[in-house]
């Protein structure tokens, strides 16, 4: 319906008149807000026609029985005494917010057709609600009730009750930094349609595995789903007259009748009552930290007014942050102390003494000492007396409540509430009193309000009538006496033990020297008998007679690793390589990958039988158990070194493939390695960048990557379970949530694979080896060799060809790299060191050089003539930009348009167009490297650099992990790399260089002429403009 058809006013004549004759729909009617809302509507808007409440049967009780129980609340006593038939206007309708389409029957939907006002306040305030339940109840439930509302013929307002805290980490940087919460609709948290789809298609256990990714910035599932539900409302604002109403922490009633009435122990009063019962001794939070609270009746008045104002005054969706006053845990606790003797509780187990702390470890220690140990003792005593133990259960609830409130009890928020505080500006004087949202008496006499609340809690929640007060006072007096006695005994015991300790130290002083000498001698003996080597005698000797297993042997690193081992460790027994059949070629046929590879020519020439020691085993890293047969597993029993370098470096791999290939495969290989009888080292090849957003706040801010294990990204067992059991489409939706902080599936699953290794470090001698960006070979044979043109190499060649004109990033930003042969040497040494020297799992960040965009530009300009390409289409001239729009504009102008023109010419000449295809590949490479080309990292590599120092003089040359000389002679290396790429990838022999140089000169001349013409035209236009 078009709700904008109603004429708007700037004044509300009468609120009761607005509600006169209306049908109202309420969700969450049996909740705290719902009770007070219904009471207020029936009392102050008595001429309304009907209130419909969607209520579900609960614990075997029908909705009609639930209505009878609802009406028996002490809150309605005065209302019923004034008008016994008042509840005839209230009708409970069977439904369930968490069910599809609210679980409403067609008959009930028909009943609701004339509803004018909707108050959607249903919510589960369990902050630790399972994600599936929270999404179905809060997000899908909101969508379904909005859909239902679009069928109402007389709809005037839809009030969605959210919470002020659901967007505390969803604003701009300034708002988040200052903890500001404004009265506006915030940006979309996640695509709510996808979120609902996930909850509908995945079982609860699977969703629980990934909850942390959804709630990382929303603290818990309640706040997350409330924020997403606001996004649902936003998408319906053209169809439904919306109000988003965000109360802060809702506390007891402030206005008679029943001042202080509350029907739950959620929030700060739960802490206060816990203290009065003697159950709560330690509280996590700041005593003086401001808590934003609002009495429930003020909240309800605001809701009623906001619906009225939305129809009569507002033209668009209105947002209200319903905040009334600030209190603190300290203030509530002091109010509790003030009434401790006035309203003592019969069930008190000890005296009130609550302390606050923001130290996590102090909180944990005191919780164990003063909560769980006493609870366990008392429950044990109750069991012994054949009574029901209950204190441990109570403490688990207290702990859960403290965890839920932790952020709010130690953080102060700045909540903007201008819209809310000005709701009464549109009211007449009588309505301002009836629907008061500025109860000054409560703000003035806050302690009296707290006192009334505690009195109501005692009577109505704890079922402790006033007649028990005298007996409770006597009991409290006895407990205080017992508390003083226990404290006296405790401090006397401490004093006694301190005295005894000091005395024993003085007596034992004469024996200290003898004991120290004895201890030093013992330590020397232990050190001499258990010390490991500090240097490696010979790397080749270490590998002598070894059987080695390699994964990823046909990849870039794998090819160099196999060649290096066969060349420099000739006395090893066997190298097994797990290889899968590919493109119709069997595993044995794929051995040609090695024989036809240029880096093996020199090896085969010197030793024609060298590759006899290489045996390919059929397997597939993405299959369960690596797809290895039982007979092949038997052959691998004597393997002593494992190099696990298999990986798909496609950054946009589907999550399912990446998890199975990287995470499950790592687990399966580790399990296989545990069956090897002679295991010396398991080298897991990761990447230096997989933990760039997983360290401490300081490390993330400084973009520092340390040589250490990082915390678990996720539980890898759950992620494997997800990949094995969930379909690809659903996993692709999940992918963006899981990889939110890891950029892509490659880095995310590499980080998870490290977590797998961490869990196996007690069972296997593991090495975590993290190369940065792996580039060409730096040494002979085949200096400059590379197996594929990925990453920076492809962009560099595209620059020489004139295909690349614009790069996303900054020219001063540095990319860290390591030569492939240096990386391989480091892997070989690290395995050796792990067995001979290391006692714990070492982590190496393998990086030896860094180059900036400026370095690349200078090198390309210096070598453009030496590496002149026959296929160059223009001069080499790359510009850098970090502006997204400028990058897109230049990409279209300098990349896409020339590619279209040249491809069109090629088509007209009957040739195959290919430049657009190349530009798409270049663009994908740029997107993959975008984050790295625009950010510099501090990669700490101290441990890696130390690898060279444990080698003898000969091995320092043979297994050089740094290649210092090549780093110094960078120009020569780039030239040789460029020439190799020219010959083998572009099929452009060295004989064509002279002709290519002449062609380059002509292109440069054309480039200068075009620039001159463009500049001259520009100058002429400016001259012409100012002259005339």
TrEMBL record:
<keyword id="KW-0521">NADP</keyword>
<dbReference type="InterPro" id="IPR036291">
    <property type="entry name" value="NAD(P)-bd_dom_sf"/>
</dbReference>
<feature type="domain" description="Thioester reductase (TE)">
    <location>
        <begin position="550"/>
        <end position="827"/>
    </location>
</feature>
<dbReference type="InterPro" id="IPR013120">
    <property type="entry name" value="FAR_NAD-bd"/>
</dbReference>
<keyword id="KW-0443">Lipid metabolism</keyword>
<comment type="function">
    <text>Catalyzes the reduction of fatty acyl-CoA to fatty alcohols.</text>
</comment>
<dbReference type="Pfam" id="PF07993">
    <property type="entry name" value="NAD_binding_4"/>
</dbReference>
<keyword id="KW-0560">Oxidoreductase</keyword>
<dbReference type="Pfam" id="PF03015">
    <property type="entry name" value="Sterile"/>
</dbReference>
<feature type="domain" description="Fatty acyl-CoA reductase C-terminal">
    <location>
        <begin position="370"/>
        <end position="464"/>
    </location>
</feature>
<dbReference type="GO" id="GO:0080019">
    <property type="term" value="F:alcohol-forming very long-chain fatty acyl-CoA reductase activity"/>
</dbReference>
<dbReference type="InterPro" id="IPR033640">
    <property type="entry name" value="FAR_C"/>
</dbReference>
<keyword id="KW-0444">Lipid biosynthesis</keyword>
<dbReference type="GO" id="GO:0005777">
    <property type="term" value="C:peroxisome"/>
</dbReference>
<feature type="domain" description="Thioester reductase (TE)">
    <location>
        <begin position="26"/>
        <end position="303"/>
    </location>
</feature>
<dbReference type="GO" id="GO:0035336">
    <property type="term" value="P:long-chain fatty-acyl-CoA metabolic process"/>
</dbReference>
<comment type="similarity">
    <text>Belongs to the fatty acyl-CoA reductase family.</text>
</comment>
<dbReference type="GO" id="GO:0102965">
    <property type="term" value="F:alcohol-forming long-chain fatty acyl-CoA reductase activity"/>
</dbReference>
<feature type="domain" description="Fatty acyl-CoA reductase C-terminal">
    <location>
        <begin position="895"/>
        <end position="960"/>
    </location>
</feature>
<protein>
    <recommendedName>
        <fullName>Fatty acyl-CoA reductase</fullName>
        <ecNumber>1.2.1.84</ecNumber>
    </recommendedName>
</protein>
<dbReference type="InterPro" id="IPR026055">
    <property type="entry name" value="FAR"/>
</dbReference>
